[in-house]
Structures are given as C-alpha cells and as structure tokens.
Write a structure and sequence with these properties.
mainly alpha
Length: 256
C-alpha cells in the first residue's frame, strides 16, 4: 500500500510521476500541432464538457455575481461611490471570479469523470487492448479530452461572466437601489475587450491543466476499484491545487 512507503520511495514516485506527466504532455501537444486529432471522439467530449457543464456553470456564475454584488454594493454606497459599483463587480468577475470558479467546476465535474472513465478502462485492460490493436491511447483517448477542454472551457467562462454580471446587476438595482444605466455605464468604463481575452486565456490554461492531470491519473490508475477511486480523488485535488497556483501566477503576469 502507498501509505506504507518510506519518504524516499514517495519522493521517488513523485519525481517519476512528474517525468511521466511531462512526457505525456509533450506527446499530446506534439500530436495536436501536427493535426493528429480524433475528431469523432473530440466532438463527443465537447458535448460532454461544454453542453452538459453549462447549467452548473451558469448557476455558479449567477450565485457568484449576486453575492459579490451584494457585498460590494453596500460598501460602495456607504462611501457615496455608487457610480463605481458596476465597474468593481465587472472587473472582479472578468479577471478573477469567472475563470477561477469555472475552472473549479470543470475540475469537480469533468476532471473526476475523465479520471474515473480512463481509470476503469485501465483496470479492465481496455487501454492495453487499444495498444495491442496499434491504436495510440494518447491520440484516441487523451487528445480529444484535452482539445475539447482547450476550446470549451474559455467559452464556459465567458458565459459565466455574462450571467454573473447579470446577477450583480439584479442585486445592485433591485436590492440596493443603484440606477441601472449607472451600473451598466460603469461596467463599460472599467471592463475592456482585453480583459475578456485574458479571461479566456486563463480559462484555457485551467482547462488544459484539468484535462491533462485527469487523463494522466486515469491512465495510470492502480488495480481494482480502489485504484480508480484513488486516481479520481488525486485528479480532482491536484487539479484544484494547480488551478489556484496558476491563477495567482497568471494574475500576476496578466494584470500587473
């Protein structure tokens, strides 16, 4: 069992995982750049990652926008800065809240599903069967998921931005009494197209991280149902940690 391993063995296993993950990542992007993409599987993954994730992303975005606007509006109104409420809500949502929480939702829903599915295929030797039939598992299984996340997570993030700003508008106008035109003009003054582009870039990085980590953990799952469970849990935890770390680094790079 892994918990009985010595510290040196755990450290060696960690470095080995980093090496294997790096090689898999290199293979994935190499095959994507040369056009080795299984389009039928990619379309299926795009439907699962994009369409099926949209309701929970919209619900999360609406809740975030409403709660954030509720807190910010009260503070700004106390200081007589009602003309800046829309801008503060919009900038915070576009730059941080929407991409971050979209990544978290994708990690919890899509990442867990990918790790569990590929882990089950590994345990039941379906991946070995693909290899024996001269089918590259990276091309057939990993690339469709990574490519779908690369394309769809930024779009989910933009949808989250729209619904979150709408939720913030509802709270600011109908709960706090802010003038709607004042809120909207403030959003237009503070939020620019480049902010939306950076938001999509951050989201694409989060999507790639989640898909790569989940695919790696699934393909390298241990034996039996316990191995699949451990792989799924590890995929979600590592994806969340990676998202939070990269969010800080990307914010430092893009918005300072």
């Amino acid at each position: 069992m892994e918990r009985n391993l010595s510290f040196e063995q755990k450290l060696n296993n960690s470095f080995e995982d980093v090496g294997k993950f790096s090689f898999m990542t290199f293979d994935v992007f190499k095959l994507i750049l040369i056009g080795k993409i299984h389009f039928r599987n990619t379309i299926q993954q795009m439907a699962f990652i994009g369409t099926d994730s949209l309701p929970i992303v919209l619900l999360t975005g609406l809740a975030i926008g409403m709660v954030f606007s509720l807190q910010v509006s009260g503070i700004f109104l106390d200081y007589g800065a009602s003309n800046m409420i829309g801008g503060a809500v919009g900038v915070s949502i576009v730059r941080e809240l929407a991409p971050l929480f979209t990544g978290v939702v994708v990690a919890g829903r899509v990442g867990a599903a990918i790790a569990a599915e590929l882990g089950s295929m590994k345990v039941t030797e379906q991946i070995d069967a693909l290899t024996s039939m001269a089918v590259n598992p990276i091309k057939y299984l990993v690339i469709p998921r990574v490519f779908a996340c690369l394309l769809l997570v930024p779009l989910l993030s933009i949808m989250s931005v729209i619904i979150a700003v709408f939720g913030g508008l509802l709270i600011a106008v109908f709960v706090k009494g802010v003038i709607m035109s004042q809120f909207l003009s403030s959003v237009q003054d503070f939020v620019h197209v480049k902010d939306l582009i950076k938001c999509m870039f951050k989201s694409s990085v989060f999507g790639v991280l989640v898909s790569l980590i989940s695919c790696y953990k699934g393909i390298n799952a241990g034996e039996g149902a316990q191995g699949v469970g451990i792989a799924t849990t590890s995929a979600v935890v590592l994806s969340l940690i990676s998202i939070f770390i990269c969010n800080y680094l990307l914010s430092l790079l893009l918005f300072t």
